[in-house]
Structures are given as C-alpha cells and as structure tokens.
Amino acid sequence: MTDNNSLPKFNLGFKVWLEKGGLSFGDGLFDLLSGVSRLGSIARAAADLKMSYRAAWGKIKEAERQWNITLVRTHVGGETGGGAILTPEGEELLVRYRLFRSKAEDTARELFAGVFD
C-alpha cells in the first residue's frame, strides 16, 4: 500500500443481511417487523414504511414459508379492526439481528479507519 494523499476522502457505507432458502433478512424486513412490534399492526407498519399492506403481508408470509417459522400472529379486532404481534421467534430474530448489525458496523468502522484514515 502506498502513502498517497491524492485519494479522495471516502465515507464508509455497507449493508449486511442474512440468507436462508434463497431469501434474505436485512434492514427492510427488519424495519417491517420492528414496525409490527412497535405499532401492533401490519397495516400501520406498512404505512409507516410507505409500502402497501399487500406487499408487507407478502414479505412476511414468504419469509415464514421459506424459513418454516411463524414471525407474526394476527388477530381479529372489534371496532378498530385487527392487529398483529410478533411471535417469540419473531422478537428473537429482531434482537439477534440488531445485535449482529451493531457488531458488524463497529467492526467495519474499525477496519475502515485502519485502512483509509
């Protein structure tokens, strides 16, 4: 490696995701499931992410099918409609992915600083 200050000042950018069965779990599905957990509704989580309910439902169901796991339970509500909650497995996936992503970011920042600073 040369000591060449002619290179531009770069910023770090990267994405991480998990793969299983040809389907990935990354920030998009993480944000959707986090929204369901926080808002108690697939429809509200989808709206918060500016996506259709149908697209959100499809992403959740495809992940459940591919991974043979139930991530979300829905229930029929009264006057305000239904709602949704994450299963314990869905909550555990969020916790572990959040931890993994945080550690990956810390490591990437450290590597970046060692190479580009």
What do you see in this structure?
InterPro entries: LysR_HTH_N (IPR000847), Molybdate_resp_trans_reg (IPR051815), WH-like_DNA-bd_sf (IPR036388), WH_DNA-bd_sf (IPR036390). It is a single chain. The radius of gyration is 19 Å and the shape is elongated. It has four helices and four strands. The strands form two sheets. Strands 1-2 form a two-stranded antiparallel sheet. Strands 3-4 form a two-stranded antiparallel ribbon. The chain has one domain: Winged helix-like DNA-binding domain superfamily/Winged helix DNA-binding domain (Arc Repressor Mutant, subunit A), CATH 1.10.10. With about 120 residues, the chain is mainly alpha-helical.
- Specify the CATH homologous superfamily: Winged helix-like DNA-binding domain superfamily/Winged helix DNA-binding domain
The parts where pLDDT drops under 50 for at least 5 residues are: none
The total beta strand count reads 4
Coarse shape: elongated
CATH topology descriptor: Arc Repressor Mutant, subunit A
Question: What do the pLDDT scores average to?
Answer: 93
Mind summarizing the main beta sheet?
2 strands, antiparallel
Number of helices: 4
Secondary structure: helix percent: 40-55%
Please give the alpha-carbon distance between the first and last residues: 13 Å
Tell me the count of domains: 1
CATH class: Mainly Alpha
Proportion of residues in β-strands: 5-15%
H and E order: EEHHHEEH
- Which structural class should the secondary elements be placed in? mainly alpha
Q: Over the alpha carbons, how many angstroms does the gyration radius reach?
A: 19 Å
CATH architecture: Orthogonal Bundle
Specify the oligomeric state. Answer: single chain
Strand order of the largest sheet: 1-2
Protein name: DNA-binding domain of ModE
InterPro entries: LysR_HTH_N, Molybdate_resp_trans_reg, WH-like_DNA-bd_sf, WH_DNA-bd_sf
GO molecular function: DNA binding; DNA-binding transcription factor activity
Keywords: DNA-binding
